[in-house]
Amino acid sequence: MVCCYCKTKLKVATMKVITCTAPVNIAVVKYWGKRDVNRVLPANSSASVTLDQKQLRAKTTVAASADFEENRIWLNGREETIETPRIQNLLKEIKQRAKETVSCDDSLLSWNVRICSENNFPTAAGLASSAAGYACLAYSLSQLYNVSGDISDIARQGSGSACRSIYGGFVVWDKGELADGKDSIARQIAPHTHWPELRVLILVVSDQKKQTGSTAGMQVTMETSSLMAARLGVIDQRIEKITAAILKKDFHTFAELTMIESNQLHAVCLDSYPPISYMTDVSRLIVNLVHAYNTYHGQNKVAYTFDAGPNACLYLLEEHVPMVTSLVQHFFPPIQGNKEFLTGLPVKKAKLNQELLSTIAVPIQPTGAIKFIIHTQPGPGPTLCSNKDSLLDNAGMPKAVVIETIDEPSTKVGDKDNQTLKNGVSLARTKVKGKGKTLKVLKSEKSVKATKKEINLKTKHERKDKLRSGQNRVSKLGKRRGEHQGRQAQVKRQKTSQK
Ligand code: DP6
């Protein structure tokens, strides 16, 4: 571009920005073990159900600009290092694909990128957040560089299970045979609309970060479990059977295979050395509850599955949701006043069936054994959002970053409040967790510094004001009372300065 007055060349700051969302998926035939760690190639094929993004999704904005001096990434409001092998591999692969397919300009590929990503659910809660996160990153980058066609092998570079989140509905990830992993890709076997009655309940037993991550866990199993060979021998047949059950909407068989599969995954984990145990006593009681429910009905009405953590994912048909959620609340009562216990899709109230109740040999647990339940359903794959949904501002900086976490038990999850401080900085706080945790977020990184200063200034002024009002009061009072107040003010001053 040329200046219309002096005709000198002007540098135009260009930035391409893309925002996308991607879903979580929960495996019904689990991926556990790699045949090639560097290329993230699995030891076995797996199958999963992609969940609705209304309840669980990752959102990512990627921006590329000639003006960015370096690549940067922010995850859930905090800047993190971008120099991890997984992110670097993913970036390398997508650029390589763009070059091979000549999908975009070379200059766009040479620009640095900024990535900003957030989840609408607790990240460390063992809810397949890495699958949604890496699928979203791969999908957003594919939109940025106009890469078309299957990109599940690129998402796989971030996290194996992420390749399944590239598709909605019911998905199979074929392990592939080739050494370069070109045939280790995901494919949709049926869209989410195929089985409209299917529902999912996620019972969050712990929202703490797991002790053994899946990457490390599956490596130990591959190296030490002698039961693993038997497992690998039955997986392909299991995938075939569960695919047929899904296509026929045969819930009984789908549920049986899902439960057998989950049990076998946790058996090989226990057979690893040192043993890995992801399920807790509460997880096992959930298993007992599900089996008692199925026995009462004479066939499978609910299926459980557990990933690398204690949280249960229950598959069931819509008609059983009211009774199953009532039973869960009966045996695992929520902490009193926890209105966030059951979130997601609405659930009709069901009166507990006393006959059924008497067949369930599960002791009623102390309150809070299950933290909360998310009610959801199968959903579609990643989506491209509009510019107004961008997580980055016009300068390519995050619109919101976390500055502090505070405790406010009286507020509700999702509660928002906005405050405009003296310097015009806008402070937005959103309650994000069930129990007393509130994230305080600000509009941009620039404003974080300004606000931190503002908060300090405010407290300094407050201290001075307090001291001044103490002194004024002393001068107005009678001598004896004044002496008394003076002593009090002194104590107050000492306390304030100690603070
Ligand atoms: C138990 O995909 O997290 O959830 O490829 O090492 O990142 P990496 O592992 P990851 O493993 C998921 C394991 C699982 C089962 C599954 O989702 O299939």
Question: Can you tag this structure with a few keywords?
Answer:
single chain, 499 residues, alpha+beta, 6-stranded mixed β-sheet, 5-stranded mixed β-sheet, 21 strands, binds ligand DP6
Give an overview in words.
There is one protein chain. The chain is of the alpha+beta class and about 500 residues long. Helices cover about 35% and strands about 20% of the residues. The protein is built from 12 helices and 21 strands. Residues about 405-415, about 420-430, about 430-440 and about 440-485 have low confidence and may be disordered. Bound molecules: ligand DP6. Ligand DP6 binds next to helix 5.
What's the N-to-C terminus distance? 58 Å
Q: What is the residue-averaged pLDDT?
A: 84
Number of helices: 12
Largest sheet: 6 strands, mixed
Structural class: alpha+beta
**Dominant shape:** globular
User: Can you list the ligands bound to this structure?
Assistant: ligand DP6
Low-confidence stretches: 406-415, 418-428, 431-440, 442-487
Give Rg in angstroms: 27 Å
Helix content class: 25-40%
Number of strands: 21
List the strand order in the largest sheet.
Answer: 8-7-9-6-1-17
Short summary of the structure?
The protein has 499 residues and is α+β, with helices and mostly antiparallel strands. Helices cover 36% and strands 22% of the residues.
Layout of secondary structure:
Elements: E1 15-23, E2 25-29, E3 34-36, E4 41-42, E5 46-50, E6 57-65, E7 72-75, E8 78-80, H1 85-100, H2 106-110, E9 112-119, H3 129-144, H4 152-156, E10 170-173, E11 186-190, E12 198-204, H5 214-224, H6 228-248, H7 251-270, H8 281-297, E13 302-306, E14 312-317, H9 321-331, E15 342-344, H10 354-357, E16 372-376, E17 383-384, E18 401-407, E19 416-420, E20 426-431, E21 437-442, H11 445-476, H12 479-498
Parallel strand pairs: 7-9, 15-16
Antiparallel strand pairs: 1-6, 1-17, 2-5, 3-4, 5-10, 6-9, 7-8, 10-11, 12-14, 12-16, 13-14, 18-21, 19-20, 20-21
Helix pairs in contact: 1-3, 6-7, 11-12
The structure holds ligand DP6.
